[in-house]
Amino acid sequence: MLSELAKSETASIIYKTDFTREEWIGVIAEALAKEFGSCLVIEVWNAPEDQVQDISIQLSQKNALQLAEYFAKNIVLEAPDITVALEKLSKVPKPDGHADLFTLKELQEKQIMSLGVSIKQRYVDRQGHILPILLRHFRETLGKSLSRLFFEFLRIHTTVKAAEFKLQTHEELSKSVLDIDKKLAQESQKFDFLLLVTPINAHEAWLQFKKDKFYRAPKFIYRPMPIDPDLVKRNLYNLRIEDLYDPTIAYLFRDKRSELDAMMSMLSDRGKEDFMHGSLQVFGNVSDKLLNIAKALLTVIERDEPSDPDDKVKLDAHEFAQLAHDEIKYLQAQRPDFNTTVRVRDDISGVMVNRGVLNISKEYQIGMKRAKALIQHEVGTHIVTYFNGKAQPLSLFSLGVPGYEQLQEGLAVFAEYLIGGLTNDRLRIIAGRVIAVRHMLMGHSFIETFSMLSEEYEFANQTAFQMTMRVYRGGGLTKDALYLQGLIELIQYLKEGKDIRLLTIGKIREDYLPIVQDLTQRGILRPPALVPRYLSIENMERHRDLNKIGNIFTLINH
Questions:
Q1: How many CB atoms within 10 Å of residue 542?
Q2: What is the pLDDT of residues 524-539, one digit of tens each?
Protein backbone atom coordinates (compact mmCIF):
# COMPACT_ATOMS: atom_id res chain seq x y z
CA MET A 1 0.00 0.00 0.00
CA LEU A 2 2.82 2.41 0.88
CA SER A 3 4.66 1.82 -2.40
CA GLU A 4 1.46 2.33 -4.41
CA LEU A 5 0.74 5.50 -2.44
CA ALA A 6 4.21 6.82 -3.31
CA LYS A 7 3.83 5.88 -6.96
CA SER A 8 0.50 7.75 -7.12
CA GLU A 9 2.45 11.01 -6.85
CA THR A 10 4.03 12.91 -9.74
CA ALA A 11 7.51 11.45 -9.28
CA SER A 12 9.00 8.60 -7.29
CA ILE A 13 12.50 7.27 -6.74
CA ILE A 14 13.16 3.60 -5.98
CA TYR A 15 16.55 2.93 -4.41
CA LYS A 16 18.47 -0.01 -3.00
CA THR A 17 18.53 -0.34 0.78
CA ASP A 18 22.29 -0.09 0.95
CA PHE A 19 21.94 3.54 -0.21
CA THR A 20 20.65 5.16 3.00
CA ARG A 21 17.73 7.58 2.88
CA GLU A 22 19.48 10.26 4.93
CA GLU A 23 22.23 10.54 2.29
CA TRP A 24 19.96 12.07 -0.34
CA ILE A 25 16.68 13.19 1.27
CA GLY A 26 18.41 15.84 3.35
CA VAL A 27 20.24 17.24 0.32
CA ILE A 28 17.04 17.51 -1.75
CA ALA A 29 15.03 19.01 1.14
CA GLU A 30 17.66 21.66 1.81
CA ALA A 31 17.81 22.65 -1.88
CA LEU A 32 14.01 22.95 -2.09
CA ALA A 33 13.87 25.06 1.07
CA LYS A 34 16.44 27.46 -0.38
CA GLU A 35 14.50 27.72 -3.66
CA PHE A 36 10.97 28.11 -2.26
CA GLY A 37 11.42 29.32 1.32
CA SER A 38 10.45 26.05 2.98
CA CYS A 39 10.27 22.29 2.38
CA LEU A 40 7.89 19.71 3.84
CA VAL A 41 9.16 16.16 4.41
CA ILE A 42 6.58 13.49 5.24
CA GLU A 43 7.82 10.04 6.17
CA VAL A 44 5.29 7.19 6.10
CA TRP A 45 5.70 3.72 7.58
CA ASN A 46 3.77 0.65 8.73
CA ALA A 47 2.68 1.02 12.35
CA PRO A 48 3.80 -1.27 15.17
CA GLU A 49 1.19 -3.82 16.24
CA ASP A 50 0.28 -1.98 19.45
CA GLN A 51 -0.85 1.22 17.67
CA VAL A 52 -4.52 1.87 18.53
CA GLN A 53 -5.59 4.32 15.82
CA ASP A 54 -5.50 3.51 12.10
CA ILE A 55 -3.27 6.51 11.40
CA SER A 56 -0.97 8.36 13.77
CA ILE A 57 0.26 11.74 12.51
CA GLN A 58 3.44 12.58 14.41
CA LEU A 59 5.16 15.97 14.72
CA SER A 60 7.75 17.72 16.83
CA GLN A 61 7.53 21.34 15.52
CA LYS A 62 4.92 23.89 16.63
CA ASN A 63 4.68 25.37 13.14
CA ALA A 64 3.76 21.93 11.75
CA LEU A 65 0.70 21.59 14.01
CA GLN A 66 -1.68 23.47 11.70
CA LEU A 67 -0.66 21.25 8.76
CA ALA A 68 -1.02 18.08 10.83
CA GLU A 69 -4.52 19.12 11.95
CA TYR A 70 -5.50 19.99 8.37
CA PHE A 71 -4.24 16.61 7.16
CA ALA A 72 -6.16 14.77 9.90
CA LYS A 73 -9.35 16.72 9.17
CA ASN A 74 -9.20 15.80 5.47
CA ILE A 75 -8.67 12.11 6.22
CA VAL A 76 -11.75 12.08 8.46
CA LEU A 77 -13.83 14.02 5.92
CA GLU A 78 -12.79 11.64 3.15
CA ALA A 79 -13.24 8.46 5.22
CA PRO A 80 -15.01 8.77 8.61
CA ASP A 81 -14.35 5.06 9.24
CA ILE A 82 -10.56 5.60 9.38
CA THR A 83 -9.45 6.68 12.86
CA VAL A 84 -6.73 9.32 13.20
CA ALA A 85 -4.65 10.59 16.12
CA LEU A 86 -2.16 13.48 16.44
CA GLU A 87 0.97 12.69 18.42
CA LYS A 88 3.38 15.43 19.55
CA LEU A 89 6.95 14.23 20.07
CA SER A 90 10.07 15.70 21.61
CA LYS A 91 12.20 14.45 18.70
CA VAL A 92 11.87 14.34 14.91
CA PRO A 93 9.39 11.58 13.97
CA LYS A 94 10.82 8.49 12.26
CA PRO A 95 10.13 4.75 12.05
CA ASP A 96 11.80 2.45 14.56
CA GLY A 97 15.18 1.11 13.52
CA HIS A 98 16.05 4.02 11.22
CA ALA A 99 18.49 6.85 11.72
CA ASP A 100 17.32 10.46 12.14
CA LEU A 101 16.89 12.41 8.89
CA PHE A 102 17.42 15.71 10.74
CA THR A 103 17.88 17.08 14.20
CA LEU A 104 15.33 19.58 15.53
CA LYS A 105 17.99 22.29 15.24
CA GLU A 106 18.62 21.42 11.55
CA LEU A 107 14.88 21.61 10.79
CA GLN A 108 14.71 25.08 12.28
CA GLU A 109 17.90 26.40 10.65
CA LYS A 110 17.18 24.98 7.19
CA GLN A 111 13.44 25.91 7.07
CA ILE A 112 12.38 22.27 6.78
CA MET A 113 9.12 20.92 8.23
CA SER A 114 8.71 17.26 9.13
CA LEU A 115 5.69 15.01 9.67
CA GLY A 116 5.61 11.28 10.37
CA VAL A 117 2.66 9.11 9.39
CA SER A 118 2.37 5.70 11.03
CA ILE A 119 -0.28 3.53 9.34
CA LYS A 120 -1.87 0.46 10.88
CA GLN A 121 -2.19 -2.36 8.35
CA ARG A 122 -5.92 -2.90 8.84
CA TYR A 123 -6.08 -3.96 5.20
CA VAL A 124 -4.18 -7.20 6.02
CA ASP A 125 -6.01 -10.00 7.88
CA ARG A 126 -4.58 -12.24 10.61
CA GLN A 127 -3.46 -14.83 8.08
CA GLY A 128 -1.47 -12.19 6.19
CA HIS A 129 -3.91 -11.94 3.26
CA ILE A 130 -4.44 -8.51 1.71
CA LEU A 131 -8.01 -7.17 1.75
CA PRO A 132 -7.98 -5.36 -1.63
CA ILE A 133 -11.01 -3.07 -1.21
CA LEU A 134 -9.84 -1.88 2.20
CA LEU A 135 -6.28 -1.39 0.91
CA ARG A 136 -7.58 0.73 -1.97
CA HIS A 137 -9.74 2.69 0.47
CA PHE A 138 -6.67 3.58 2.57
CA ARG A 139 -4.52 4.41 -0.46
CA GLU A 140 -7.09 6.65 -2.13
CA THR A 141 -8.04 8.41 1.12
CA LEU A 142 -4.39 9.17 1.86
CA GLY A 143 -3.69 10.14 -1.75
CA LYS A 144 -6.47 12.75 -1.82
CA SER A 145 -5.70 14.05 1.67
CA LEU A 146 -1.99 14.40 0.90
CA SER A 147 -2.76 16.35 -2.29
CA ARG A 148 -4.81 18.86 -0.28
CA LEU A 149 -2.10 19.00 2.40
CA PHE A 150 0.59 19.77 -0.20
CA PHE A 151 -1.46 22.62 -1.61
CA GLU A 152 -2.11 24.03 1.87
CA PHE A 153 1.62 23.87 2.67
CA LEU A 154 2.52 25.65 -0.57
CA ARG A 155 -0.12 28.33 0.07
CA ILE A 156 1.01 29.16 3.61
CA HIS A 157 4.68 28.27 3.93
CA THR A 158 6.34 28.86 0.54
CA THR A 159 6.97 31.70 -1.90
CA VAL A 160 4.81 29.96 -4.54
CA LYS A 161 1.67 31.95 -5.42
CA ALA A 162 -1.18 29.57 -4.73
CA ALA A 163 -3.46 31.23 -7.30
CA GLU A 164 -0.92 30.51 -10.03
CA PHE A 165 0.01 27.06 -8.79
CA LYS A 166 -1.29 23.89 -10.41
CA LEU A 167 -0.76 20.50 -8.84
CA GLN A 168 1.17 18.69 -11.53
CA THR A 169 -0.02 15.26 -10.45
CA HIS A 170 -0.65 13.30 -13.64
CA GLU A 171 -1.31 16.36 -15.78
CA GLU A 172 -0.41 14.08 -18.67
CA LEU A 173 -3.08 11.39 -18.48
CA SER A 174 -1.52 7.94 -18.55
CA LYS A 175 -2.25 5.46 -21.32
CA SER A 176 -4.14 3.20 -18.89
CA VAL A 177 -6.44 6.11 -17.88
CA LEU A 178 -7.17 6.99 -21.50
CA ASP A 179 -7.74 3.34 -22.43
CA ILE A 180 -10.27 2.80 -19.64
CA ASP A 181 -11.99 6.11 -20.44
CA LYS A 182 -12.26 5.06 -24.09
CA LYS A 183 -13.67 1.63 -23.23
CA LEU A 184 -16.20 3.09 -20.78
CA ALA A 185 -17.30 5.45 -23.54
CA GLN A 186 -17.61 2.57 -26.01
CA GLU A 187 -19.88 0.64 -23.66
CA SER A 188 -21.95 3.76 -22.89
CA GLN A 189 -22.44 4.50 -26.59
CA LYS A 190 -23.77 1.05 -27.42
CA PHE A 191 -27.21 2.12 -26.19
CA ASP A 192 -29.31 5.17 -25.41
CA PHE A 193 -31.06 4.53 -22.13
CA LEU A 194 -33.90 7.07 -22.45
CA LEU A 195 -34.72 6.05 -26.01
CA LEU A 196 -34.87 2.40 -24.97
CA VAL A 197 -37.27 3.06 -22.07
CA THR A 198 -39.49 5.60 -23.88
CA PRO A 199 -42.47 4.24 -25.88
CA ILE A 200 -42.33 4.59 -29.66
CA ASN A 201 -46.13 4.71 -29.85
CA ALA A 202 -46.82 7.50 -27.33
CA HIS A 203 -49.00 9.55 -29.72
CA GLU A 204 -51.04 6.56 -30.87
CA ALA A 205 -51.40 5.42 -27.26
CA TRP A 206 -52.79 8.85 -26.32
CA LEU A 207 -55.37 8.74 -29.12
CA GLN A 208 -56.49 5.25 -28.04
CA PHE A 209 -56.54 6.29 -24.37
CA LYS A 210 -58.79 9.23 -25.24
CA LYS A 211 -61.00 6.98 -27.37
CA ASP A 212 -61.35 4.62 -24.39
CA LYS A 213 -62.49 7.61 -22.31
CA PHE A 214 -59.46 7.25 -20.00
CA TYR A 215 -60.68 3.98 -18.43
CA ARG A 216 -58.28 1.51 -20.05
CA ALA A 217 -54.53 1.67 -19.42
CA PRO A 218 -52.55 2.24 -22.63
CA LYS A 219 -50.23 -0.40 -24.06
CA PHE A 220 -46.78 0.91 -24.83
CA ILE A 221 -44.37 -0.45 -27.41
CA TYR A 222 -40.60 -0.12 -27.01
CA ARG A 223 -37.61 -0.36 -29.32
CA PRO A 224 -35.89 -3.73 -29.69
CA MET A 225 -32.90 -4.10 -27.35
CA PRO A 226 -29.71 -3.53 -29.41
CA ILE A 227 -27.40 -4.93 -26.71
CA ASP A 228 -27.03 -7.92 -24.41
CA PRO A 229 -26.85 -6.32 -20.93
CA ASP A 230 -24.89 -9.27 -19.54
CA LEU A 231 -22.15 -8.84 -22.17
CA VAL A 232 -21.91 -5.12 -21.44
CA LYS A 233 -21.54 -5.90 -17.73
CA ARG A 234 -18.78 -8.41 -18.48
CA ASN A 235 -16.91 -5.82 -20.53
CA LEU A 236 -17.29 -3.23 -17.77
CA TYR A 237 -15.84 -5.47 -15.07
CA ASN A 238 -12.96 -6.53 -17.29
CA LEU A 239 -11.64 -2.95 -17.03
CA ARG A 240 -8.72 -2.87 -14.59
CA ILE A 241 -9.72 0.30 -12.78
CA GLU A 242 -8.12 -1.02 -9.61
CA ASP A 243 -4.68 -0.68 -11.25
CA LEU A 244 -4.98 3.12 -11.60
CA TYR A 245 -2.83 5.04 -9.13
CA ASP A 246 -4.71 8.35 -9.49
CA PRO A 247 -7.41 8.15 -6.77
CA THR A 248 -9.64 10.89 -8.19
CA ILE A 249 -9.88 9.41 -11.68
CA ALA A 250 -10.20 5.85 -10.34
CA TYR A 251 -13.17 7.01 -8.22
CA LEU A 252 -14.80 8.62 -11.28
CA PHE A 253 -14.42 5.47 -13.35
CA ARG A 254 -15.69 3.10 -10.66
CA ASP A 255 -18.70 5.33 -10.01
CA LYS A 256 -19.55 5.39 -13.74
CA ARG A 257 -19.13 1.63 -14.02
CA SER A 258 -21.54 1.09 -11.11
CA GLU A 259 -24.12 3.35 -12.76
CA LEU A 260 -23.82 1.56 -16.13
CA ASP A 261 -24.13 -1.77 -14.32
CA ALA A 262 -27.38 -0.60 -12.67
CA MET A 263 -28.70 0.68 -16.01
CA MET A 264 -27.99 -2.69 -17.61
CA SER A 265 -30.04 -4.36 -14.88
CA MET A 266 -32.87 -1.89 -15.56
CA LEU A 267 -32.82 -2.65 -19.29
CA SER A 268 -32.90 -6.38 -18.53
CA ASP A 269 -36.00 -5.71 -16.39
CA ARG A 270 -37.76 -3.33 -18.81
CA GLY A 271 -41.49 -3.78 -18.46
CA LYS A 272 -41.12 -5.70 -15.16
CA GLU A 273 -41.55 -4.68 -11.51
CA ASP A 274 -37.79 -4.80 -10.84
CA PHE A 275 -37.27 -1.95 -13.33
CA MET A 276 -38.66 0.49 -10.75
CA HIS A 277 -36.26 -0.79 -8.07
CA GLY A 278 -33.36 -0.16 -10.43
CA SER A 279 -34.69 3.34 -11.11
CA LEU A 280 -34.63 4.10 -7.39
CA GLN A 281 -30.98 3.07 -7.34
CA VAL A 282 -29.99 5.20 -10.36
CA PHE A 283 -32.31 8.23 -10.11
CA GLY A 284 -33.36 8.18 -6.47
CA ASN A 285 -36.60 8.43 -4.49
CA VAL A 286 -38.97 11.30 -3.64
CA SER A 287 -38.38 12.61 -0.12
CA ASP A 288 -41.23 13.87 2.04
CA LYS A 289 -39.68 17.34 1.94
CA LEU A 290 -39.63 17.41 -1.87
CA LEU A 291 -43.20 16.10 -2.03
CA ASN A 292 -44.42 18.82 0.34
CA ILE A 293 -42.71 21.54 -1.73
CA ALA A 294 -44.32 20.16 -4.90
CA LYS A 295 -47.77 20.15 -3.27
CA ALA A 296 -47.25 23.69 -1.95
CA LEU A 297 -46.27 24.91 -5.42
CA LEU A 298 -49.40 23.42 -6.96
CA THR A 299 -51.47 25.05 -4.22
CA VAL A 300 -50.10 28.59 -4.60
CA ILE A 301 -49.33 28.80 -8.35
CA GLU A 302 -52.02 30.39 -10.44
CA ARG A 303 -52.31 29.08 -13.96
CA ASP A 304 -51.17 31.36 -16.77
CA GLU A 305 -53.74 33.42 -18.62
CA PRO A 306 -53.24 33.13 -22.41
CA SER A 307 -52.95 36.92 -22.80
CA ASP A 308 -49.53 36.91 -24.50
CA PRO A 309 -49.99 36.85 -28.30
CA ASP A 310 -46.89 34.60 -28.52
CA ASP A 311 -48.71 31.94 -26.50
CA LYS A 312 -51.39 31.66 -29.18
CA VAL A 313 -48.90 31.10 -32.02
CA LYS A 314 -48.19 27.38 -32.31
CA LEU A 315 -45.02 26.15 -33.99
CA ASP A 316 -44.94 22.70 -35.57
CA ALA A 317 -41.96 20.33 -35.27
CA HIS A 318 -40.15 21.71 -38.35
CA GLU A 319 -40.57 25.34 -37.24
CA PHE A 320 -39.24 24.48 -33.80
CA ALA A 321 -36.32 22.69 -35.48
CA GLN A 322 -35.51 25.92 -37.35
CA LEU A 323 -35.33 27.80 -34.03
CA ALA A 324 -32.86 25.18 -32.84
CA HIS A 325 -30.75 25.63 -36.00
CA ASP A 326 -30.65 29.38 -35.35
CA GLU A 327 -29.38 28.76 -31.79
CA ILE A 328 -26.72 26.39 -33.12
CA LYS A 329 -25.49 29.15 -35.45
CA TYR A 330 -25.24 31.50 -32.44
CA LEU A 331 -23.01 28.96 -30.69
CA GLN A 332 -20.95 28.33 -33.83
CA ALA A 333 -19.95 31.99 -33.76
CA GLN A 334 -18.03 31.15 -30.56
CA ARG A 335 -16.53 27.90 -31.81
CA PRO A 336 -16.62 27.18 -35.58
CA ASP A 337 -15.87 23.49 -34.84
CA PHE A 338 -19.15 23.18 -32.92
CA ASN A 339 -21.69 21.28 -34.99
CA THR A 340 -24.68 19.11 -34.32
CA THR A 341 -27.89 17.84 -35.90
CA VAL A 342 -31.59 18.42 -35.34
CA ARG A 343 -33.88 15.51 -36.26
CA VAL A 344 -37.66 15.38 -36.65
CA ARG A 345 -38.70 11.78 -35.89
CA ASP A 346 -41.84 9.67 -35.73
CA ASP A 347 -40.60 7.25 -33.06
CA ILE A 348 -40.24 9.53 -30.02
CA SER A 349 -42.50 11.55 -27.75
CA GLY A 350 -41.92 15.28 -27.28
CA VAL A 351 -38.33 16.51 -27.41
CA MET A 352 -35.11 14.91 -26.19
CA VAL A 353 -31.35 15.32 -26.66
CA ASN A 354 -29.37 12.21 -27.49
CA ARG A 355 -25.55 12.54 -27.48
CA GLY A 356 -25.62 16.17 -28.50
CA VAL A 357 -28.39 15.71 -31.11
CA LEU A 358 -31.82 17.31 -30.69
CA ASN A 359 -34.68 14.91 -31.51
CA ILE A 360 -38.20 16.28 -32.04
CA SER A 361 -41.41 14.30 -32.42
CA LYS A 362 -43.10 14.97 -35.76
CA GLU A 363 -46.38 15.49 -33.83
CA TYR A 364 -44.83 18.18 -31.66
CA GLN A 365 -46.46 21.61 -31.30
CA ILE A 366 -45.39 24.44 -29.03
CA GLY A 367 -46.15 28.13 -28.37
CA MET A 368 -43.50 30.67 -29.36
CA LYS A 369 -42.73 31.86 -25.79
CA ARG A 370 -42.39 28.31 -24.53
CA ALA A 371 -40.30 27.40 -27.60
CA LYS A 372 -37.68 30.07 -26.82
CA ALA A 373 -37.37 28.74 -23.27
CA LEU A 374 -37.16 25.14 -24.43
CA ILE A 375 -34.36 26.02 -26.86
CA GLN A 376 -32.26 27.21 -23.91
CA HIS A 377 -33.22 24.07 -21.98
CA GLU A 378 -32.32 21.59 -24.74
CA VAL A 379 -29.71 23.38 -26.87
CA GLY A 380 -28.34 25.94 -24.38
CA THR A 381 -27.92 23.39 -21.59
CA HIS A 382 -28.02 19.75 -22.73
CA ILE A 383 -26.21 20.23 -26.04
CA VAL A 384 -23.78 22.89 -24.76
CA THR A 385 -22.71 20.76 -21.77
CA TYR A 386 -22.30 17.77 -24.10
CA PHE A 387 -20.00 19.75 -26.39
CA ASN A 388 -18.11 21.34 -23.47
CA GLY A 389 -17.68 17.84 -22.05
CA LYS A 390 -16.37 16.59 -25.40
CA ALA A 391 -13.70 19.31 -25.28
CA GLN A 392 -12.35 17.68 -22.10
CA PRO A 393 -9.72 14.92 -22.29
CA LEU A 394 -12.02 12.44 -20.53
CA SER A 395 -15.16 11.22 -22.35
CA LEU A 396 -16.92 10.90 -19.01
CA PHE A 397 -17.71 14.63 -19.01
CA SER A 398 -19.70 14.47 -22.26
CA LEU A 399 -21.41 11.15 -21.53
CA GLY A 400 -22.27 12.34 -18.03
CA VAL A 401 -20.77 11.54 -14.64
CA PRO A 402 -22.97 9.24 -12.53
CA GLY A 403 -26.07 11.05 -11.30
CA TYR A 404 -25.50 14.15 -13.44
CA GLU A 405 -29.18 14.41 -14.40
CA GLN A 406 -30.33 16.25 -11.26
CA LEU A 407 -27.97 19.20 -11.64
CA GLN A 408 -28.34 19.12 -15.43
CA GLU A 409 -32.15 19.33 -15.36
CA GLY A 410 -32.10 21.93 -12.58
CA LEU A 411 -29.73 24.10 -14.64
CA ALA A 412 -31.82 23.56 -17.79
CA VAL A 413 -35.02 24.70 -16.05
CA PHE A 414 -33.19 27.67 -14.52
CA ALA A 415 -32.04 28.61 -18.04
CA GLU A 416 -35.73 28.97 -18.90
CA TYR A 417 -36.10 31.36 -15.97
CA LEU A 418 -33.06 33.44 -16.96
CA ILE A 419 -34.51 34.24 -20.37
CA GLY A 420 -37.95 35.00 -18.93
CA GLY A 421 -39.57 31.79 -20.19
CA LEU A 422 -40.30 29.89 -16.98
CA THR A 423 -44.08 30.16 -16.85
CA ASN A 424 -46.40 29.20 -14.05
CA ASP A 425 -47.77 26.35 -16.15
CA ARG A 426 -44.25 25.00 -16.62
CA LEU A 427 -43.57 25.17 -12.86
CA ARG A 428 -46.85 23.36 -12.23
CA ILE A 429 -45.79 20.52 -14.54
CA ILE A 430 -42.39 20.21 -12.83
CA ALA A 431 -44.12 20.03 -9.42
CA GLY A 432 -46.79 17.67 -10.77
CA ARG A 433 -44.11 15.24 -11.99
CA VAL A 434 -42.83 14.87 -8.42
CA ILE A 435 -46.31 14.01 -7.17
CA ALA A 436 -46.82 11.57 -10.06
CA VAL A 437 -43.56 9.78 -9.26
CA ARG A 438 -44.48 9.47 -5.58
CA HIS A 439 -47.97 8.24 -6.51
CA MET A 440 -46.47 5.57 -8.77
CA LEU A 441 -44.02 4.46 -6.06
CA MET A 442 -46.93 4.02 -3.65
CA GLY A 443 -48.31 1.32 -5.94
CA HIS A 444 -51.04 3.23 -7.77
CA SER A 445 -51.93 2.28 -11.33
CA PHE A 446 -51.49 4.34 -14.49
CA ILE A 447 -55.23 5.18 -14.51
CA GLU A 448 -55.19 6.26 -10.85
CA THR A 449 -52.19 8.57 -11.32
CA PHE A 450 -53.66 10.05 -14.50
CA SER A 451 -56.98 10.68 -12.72
CA MET A 452 -55.23 12.31 -9.75
CA LEU A 453 -53.34 14.72 -12.03
CA SER A 454 -56.36 15.62 -14.17
CA GLU A 455 -59.04 15.76 -11.48
CA GLU A 456 -57.32 16.74 -8.24
CA TYR A 457 -54.66 19.06 -9.75
CA GLU A 458 -56.62 20.07 -12.87
CA PHE A 459 -54.00 19.36 -15.51
CA ALA A 460 -55.34 19.17 -19.06
CA ASN A 461 -56.02 15.56 -20.08
CA GLN A 462 -53.25 15.37 -22.69
CA THR A 463 -50.75 17.02 -20.31
CA ALA A 464 -51.71 14.59 -17.53
CA PHE A 465 -51.29 11.68 -19.97
CA GLN A 466 -47.80 12.84 -20.98
CA MET A 467 -46.76 13.25 -17.34
CA THR A 468 -48.13 9.83 -16.40
CA MET A 469 -46.59 8.12 -19.44
CA ARG A 470 -43.16 9.54 -18.56
CA VAL A 471 -43.41 8.22 -15.00
CA TYR A 472 -44.69 4.73 -15.87
CA ARG A 473 -42.48 4.14 -18.93
CA GLY A 474 -40.28 1.09 -18.82
CA GLY A 475 -41.95 -0.18 -15.66
CA GLY A 476 -41.64 2.91 -13.43
CA LEU A 477 -39.07 5.68 -13.95
CA THR A 478 -38.34 8.10 -11.10
CA LYS A 479 -36.17 10.44 -13.16
CA ASP A 480 -38.85 13.15 -13.53
CA ALA A 481 -38.63 14.05 -9.84
CA LEU A 482 -35.09 15.32 -10.48
CA TYR A 483 -36.22 18.50 -12.26
CA LEU A 484 -37.67 20.11 -9.15
CA GLN A 485 -35.00 18.73 -6.81
CA GLY A 486 -32.25 19.97 -9.15
CA LEU A 487 -33.81 23.42 -9.42
CA ILE A 488 -34.07 23.75 -5.62
CA GLU A 489 -30.44 22.71 -5.16
CA LEU A 490 -29.28 25.08 -7.90
CA ILE A 491 -31.00 28.01 -6.16
CA GLN A 492 -29.19 27.06 -2.94
CA TYR A 493 -25.90 26.85 -4.88
CA LEU A 494 -26.43 30.40 -6.19
CA LYS A 495 -27.43 31.70 -2.74
CA GLU A 496 -24.00 30.63 -1.55
CA GLY A 497 -22.44 32.93 -4.17
CA LYS A 498 -21.03 30.12 -6.33
CA ASP A 499 -20.28 30.41 -10.06
CA ILE A 500 -23.08 29.20 -12.33
CA ARG A 501 -20.74 29.12 -15.36
CA LEU A 502 -18.71 26.31 -13.81
CA LEU A 503 -21.77 24.07 -14.11
CA THR A 504 -21.53 24.11 -17.93
CA ILE A 505 -18.03 22.54 -18.02
CA GLY A 506 -19.63 19.18 -18.85
CA LYS A 507 -22.33 16.84 -17.63
CA ILE A 508 -21.48 16.92 -13.91
CA ARG A 509 -23.26 16.80 -10.58
CA GLU A 510 -22.90 19.19 -7.67
CA ASP A 511 -21.10 16.91 -5.23
CA TYR A 512 -18.53 16.25 -7.99
CA LEU A 513 -17.51 19.94 -8.02
CA PRO A 514 -14.54 19.33 -5.66
CA ILE A 515 -13.37 16.66 -8.15
CA VAL A 516 -13.88 19.09 -11.06
CA GLN A 517 -11.92 21.78 -9.22
CA ASP A 518 -9.19 19.28 -8.37
CA LEU A 519 -8.84 18.18 -12.01
CA THR A 520 -8.98 21.81 -13.19
CA GLN A 521 -6.30 22.80 -10.66
CA ARG A 522 -4.12 20.01 -12.02
CA GLY A 523 -4.58 21.22 -15.59
CA ILE A 524 -6.56 18.15 -16.72
CA LEU A 525 -9.93 19.87 -17.24
CA ARG A 526 -10.32 23.00 -19.38
CA PRO A 527 -12.70 25.97 -18.98
CA PRO A 528 -16.07 25.66 -20.79
CA ALA A 529 -15.63 25.97 -24.56
CA LEU A 530 -19.13 27.40 -25.18
CA VAL A 531 -21.13 29.97 -23.22
CA PRO A 532 -24.91 29.52 -23.69
CA ARG A 533 -27.02 32.55 -24.55
CA TYR A 534 -28.65 32.64 -21.12
CA LEU A 535 -25.20 33.10 -19.50
CA SER A 536 -23.99 35.70 -22.00
CA ILE A 537 -22.76 39.01 -20.59
CA GLU A 538 -25.75 40.88 -22.03
CA ASN A 539 -28.29 38.50 -20.51
CA MET A 540 -26.53 38.20 -17.14
CA GLU A 541 -26.60 42.01 -16.75
CA ARG A 542 -30.32 41.53 -16.02
CA HIS A 543 -29.52 39.02 -13.30
CA ARG A 544 -26.75 40.60 -11.24
CA ASP A 545 -28.20 39.47 -7.93
CA LEU A 546 -28.80 35.77 -8.56
CA ASN A 547 -27.65 34.98 -5.02
CA LYS A 548 -30.62 36.97 -3.70
CA ILE A 549 -33.20 34.54 -5.09
CA GLY A 550 -34.82 33.36 -1.87
CA ASN A 551 -36.27 29.99 -2.83
CA ILE A 552 -38.24 28.12 -5.48
CA PHE A 553 -41.37 30.16 -4.71
CA THR A 554 -39.58 33.35 -5.81
CA LEU A 555 -39.73 32.05 -9.40
CA ILE A 556 -43.54 32.13 -9.49
CA ASN A 557 -45.04 34.79 -11.78
CA HIS A 558 -47.63 36.90 -9.94
A1: 9
A2: 888 999 999 999 988 8
